[in-house]
Structures are given as C-alpha cells and as structure tokens.
Amino acid sequence: MAHPSGRTYQSPARQRQADETRRRIADAARSLLLTHGYAKMTVDAIAKEAGVAAPTVYAIFRSKAGILEELLDQARFGPGFAELARQAYETSEPSERLRFVARIACSIYASESTMLDLLRGAGVVKPELAELDKKLECRRYEAQESTILLIIQAGRLREGLDATTARDVLWGLTGRELYRMLVHERGWTADQYEAWLADTLIRALLSD
C-alpha cells in the first residue's frame, strides 16, 4: 500500500507477521545447528523446520551466512543490550558515557560466547566466522563516532588526540581480543574486566 508521502506503508499486523517469520527461521536454524551441525543446516532444511518456503528464507536472510549473523546478533544485542544502550545515549557526561561503553562491551562479549562456542562446535568454518566478525567490527567502529563527538563537544578530549585517533583508540581497547585474553586466558571476572576497561578508556581519552 502506498503512503501519501510516497513511502510504502506496512501495517502493524503485517510487521508482526514478518517478525514472527524471521524468529521462526532463526529458531529453526539454531535447532538444526544443535542437532545436525552446520553442514546439514541447509536453507531447504531450515525452511522445512520453520514451516516456510525456501525462497522466504532467502528473501529475509539472503544466505546461510545471513542466518548466522542473525543468530549472533540475537545473542549479542538482546533486551539487556538495548537498555544499556538507551542509558548510555541519555548520558552526556564523558566519563560516565565511557563507563557505559565498557559495560556494553562486557555485556556483548559475555553474551556471544555461548553462541560462538555453538557455531564452532557445529562445524562453522573459520573463514565464515571471520567474515561475520569483519562486518561486526565495521559496525562497531561506526558506532564509536557518537561517543567521540560527545567528548569533543564537552571539551574533554585528551590533549594530543584528534577525533580519528581517539576513535581508533576507543575501537581498539573495546575489541573482543582483549576481553578474550583477560577473561578467558587470564581468568579475570567480567566485573574486573569492565572496571579496568572503564578506567583505561577514561585515562586514554579524557583530559584531566
């Protein structure tokens, strides 16, 4: 249906139906991963398990990689993430925003661990996971811009840093590899990691 502004109108009922279909497909894919592994998680098998046609799966996710991305996004960005993000964007004080950044990073990496273990155990090959990780990192880098802009607008950016370098520092320090090294390899608790990361970000990016 055409909207008077020229945009396509989608009714709430149709949107709910689309969301439900997307959820059923993702649930079917997760079930097949658990029971049969990645090799047998074909689009046809997913469609059959979800009770939809294979073209519907392709229309929504485009490929198996798109379905894997959905499963990881569900693990990373659940209701807890949404609430933390809301609180972070309502915070205008730079040090408090950086503490939220640390909390969000900790939440994402803790939440995704189980799904990543499932994917690896189900036989998802490294190149496919690497490609998904590359997309996540691009999205993560883009998302850092608002925090750096807030720091600059508050006049709190550390002397000697420009916007690009500050964004690179923020992106690098909040990467998964540091979380993996400190929490999984060295046995830090999530709380220890979050506190250390928050303090490190504040020292690295903010003026006194």
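(ticket continues) Second input and output from the same batch:
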Amino acid sequence: MSENIDKGEGLAIAHNDCDAFFASCEQARNPRLKNRPLVTGKERGIIACASYEAKALGIKRGVGLYEAKRICPELIILPSDYETYSIYSKRLFAILRDFTPSVEEFSIDEAFCDLTGLRRLYRSSYKNIALEIKSRVKKELDITVSVGLSLSKTLAKICSRYRKPDGFMAVPGKNIHTFLKEIPLEMVCGFGPNTVALLQKHGINNVFDYIQRPVSFAQKMLGKIGIELWKELRGESVYRVSIEPKEKYLSISKTKTFTPPSCDKEFVKAQLMRNLESAFIKLRRHRLSAKNLGIYLRSSDFYGSGSEAGLNRHSSSTLDFTEICSGLFERLFDKNISYRATGVTLSGIVTEGIDRRDLFDDPVKIEHIEDLSKAVDRINEIHGKYAVHLASSDAVIAKGERTHREEVNPRSCLPQRKSELLKGETFRKRLGIPLLKLN
C-alpha cells in the first residue's frame, strides 16, 4: 500500500463536505436559528434537510412535516431557499480555489481538492493546509465543513464522513489497513445495498476484508468498478480530481413536489408539463438533444408509478414531446389517487445537431418547431422564465395554484429571498447576495 501522504509519496486528496448544508445556510443567515432544531422543505411537505439539532431528536430527511412536528413541537420549518444555498455554494468553491486550482465540484455542498505539491508553497503539512481550509470556511461563511484527507478520492470521502459533523480525519498510507478495519461496507461510495449483501455472502464484513482479497476476487464479484474501488481503497488513485465542468449528461431530470397533495387531473398534469418545459430549457442551454422521455407520478403515500416512450429521432424541442408526455400521463393517472409529486427524465442524450430523421419525417415542420423553441428561450431570457409557456402547464398558475392558495398560503412557503426584495429587484430577477438577519 502507498506510504504516508506527508512523506511525499502518492497524492494528497481532500474531500470537503458541508454539514447539513441547507439548514446550516439558514442558521448562518439568521443567527437566531443557531442551536435550534430546524428543517427545510416546507414547500414540499417533507423534510429536505435537517439541522444536527433536529437529527439528534430523530428527525431525518424524507420524514413528513406532520410527523416531524409530532416528534418536536418546537421544530422550526422553513421553505427551501435554493437561491441562497447556491450563493453559499459558489462562495465555498471560491474559498477552496484560493488554496488550489484543482477543485472538483462534486455536488452543491461538497468538493474534492488535490493538495499534492502545495506543502512548499504554504510551508505547511497537508494536514494543516486542510485544517486551514476548514477554518476559513467557518470564518467566512459561518458554516461547518467536515474534511477527509487521504491518498485517493474514495478514501478521502470515507474520512470526511467518519467524524461528522465539523470533523477532520487524515489517513496516511501506513494507517489504511488499521483504519479500514473499522469501516463498514456501506460507507464506500459505490457499494449499494445489493453489493453489500453480495460481499457479505462471501465473508466480507468490512472494507479491510475487501482489500485483503486478491484483485481477481474484486473483478469476479463487481467487474470493472470492483477493481477500481479495490485500488482506490488500497491508496492507489484511480479517480483523479477533475477540474472540468460537467459537459456530458446521460440523462436530465426535473421533479416537482407540491403541497397539499392533489387528485385534480388538470393541476397534476400542469405540474408534469412544467417539469417537461424545465427539462428542455436545461437541455437546450447545454446544446443537447434527447430521444427518450420518462415520466413518474408519486402519490401522497409515497408510492410511485412511471412509464417511458421516445421519438424515432433526437430533438431539443419541447413541442416534439408534449404529445408523448400527455399520452404517458393518461396511462398513469388514477383519479382515485392523490398525488404529491411529478417528474420527467430525458435520456438518449446527444450533442445538438445529431438528428437521424427517417423518410417520413417532415423536415420543414421540424425546423419550424426548433425555431419556435429558440424564440421562446429568447423571450423568456428577457421577460423571465415561463413568460411564454405551454398552455397545458398554465393550470399551475391559472387554476391549480389558485385552488391550492385557498388551503395553503403560498407566501408562507416562499423563501425570504423571494418575499423580501431589495430596491430594484423583482420576483424573477434578484442580486446574487443572501439577505442576512443581523438582529
């Protein structure tokens, strides 16, 4: 196995993972919320993120708000303010890039940093560099981050999870074998429930057991991914830190949870069509085209149903898929069920322009639909998202939300950044700064 990372052998990879990120952003923005049980997700009816004070009471992500309130009557429930979370996220990554240009944004609240070779620049050990990153995030953003440091991305991610929240763990090569004896298989990113069950059937009870087996065993059990993780867990870096922005998409998904649940067919369909519009807006923004569409409906008791279909060619035009989406919806919708969420997934994605039409396609019609989609994008860019939208999604505003407003005050489900505007701001256009509560 690789030797000590501070002896210059091997890489020094740090994984930075914010603690209860959404809730922490709310507490940083409003100090009155610190040390209090808090959750976000009011607009969805279920918990999107729980503070560690709430987690200590047994309140977890995905729990319904009614159940959470039963557990803790004093629970603070806030709508998710994704705009503010995105601002904090960008600042987090900017801090990381002040230390090293090799930063891979893994999600909105976590990133890998390659610190290899920075000891001379900072005249400090890799451990102290990682701790300085952690300290600066706390000082500038007032949120805590758990940091793991080791020889590979997989090991670093395990380390960051090991002492959450606000933890730090560094594992040099010489200590890998003792450290991994304490790590259950579930903690490895890439080992799902089925993989864990398979390995346990072969006498693998922890991560150390796995890396003690020969590489041929890893290949036989899990194939290529098994070999890669076997090497990563032994301190050999296979997955390098990538600083390139994500350009390749295998699929694009858009979902919408609404509260209260509804059995109003027109309203549920409108939510689904709005998902479709959002997915295609993103598809065109990245200059991509899709061939297949999948939809799903989730009921109020959290059961879901889905279906999919596709075109005989690729397209980036929403209108090419509206009829398909409507047909799939008619097949799935049950008037006796109350639904709480809808979603669409675009797949078969290729770079825009790869378009295999068959003999019976109407090229003039196809080009007109493409031009129409681009014109809608230009109008919405000027006047705000959904200024021009599908008539079938209009019930979200014209009927559905009005009906729901009789039951739920929508202003109570708006995040502060959308309800308290600065001078000159509009509901659609705001400055990229969070609003802080200073008293």
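Agent notes: The mean pLDDT is 84. The chain has two domains: 1-174+410-439, 251-405. Closing as not reproducible unless the customer responds.
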